Amino acid sequence: MSGIGYRIKCIRKENNLNQIQFAKSIGISQGNLSEIEMGNSNPSAETLISIRTQYNVNLNWLLTGVDSEDGATYEDNYDKKLIDVFRGLNDYDKKEIIEIMLLKRRLKSEINLSYD
């Protein structure tokens, strides 16, 4: 699930807003927002501009899921934030972070197996 509705929902959740609060902030109804998030309708140009302005979102990413700065595709803003921070690290720290992530994934897998 990676359409525009999903990306808008990610923005809303990242800002800890419910549908009513988010819809009000961008000038649409909660019902309209719900339909957009479910993928049943598309946001208007005005709505997209409002989201971009209110939440400082890359419009290309919002429309396509591709960040125009580097051509990468991000599933959500967590992916983008992780990549942005990671790029600022030196090589030693990058290797260490990768090892931590692999350990975390392995431990999670082991915990899931122990519950089976």
Secondary-structure class: mainly alpha
Proportion of β residues? under 5%
- How far apart the termini lie comes to 28 Å
Rg over CA atoms? 18 Å
Shape type: elongated
Main β-sheet description? none
What is the CATH fold-level name of the largest domain?
A: 434 Repressor (Amino-terminal Domain)
The CATH architecture term of the largest domain is: Orthogonal Bundle
Helix content: 55-70%
Domain HTH cro/C1-type: 8-62
GO molecular function: DNA binding
Keywords: DNA-binding
Protein name: Transcriptional regulator
Topology:
Blueprint: H1 4-14, H2 19-26, H3 30-37, H4 45-55, H5 59-64, H6 77-87, H7 91-115
Put the structure in a nutshell.
The protein folds into two domains: 1-71, 434 Repressor (Amino-terminal Domain) (Orthogonal Bundle), CATH 1.10.260.40; 76-116. The chain is built from seven helices and no strands.
Tell me what you see in this structure:
This is Transcriptional regulator. InterPro entries: Cro/C1-type_HTH (IPR001387), Lambda_DNA-bd_dom_sf (IPR010982). Keywords: DNA-binding. The structure is a single chain. The chain is an all-alpha fold. The chain folds into 2 domains: 1-71, Orthogonal Bundle (434 Repressor (Amino-terminal Domain)), CATH 1.10.260; 76-116. Helices cover 69% and strands 0% of the residues. The protein has 7 helices and no strands.
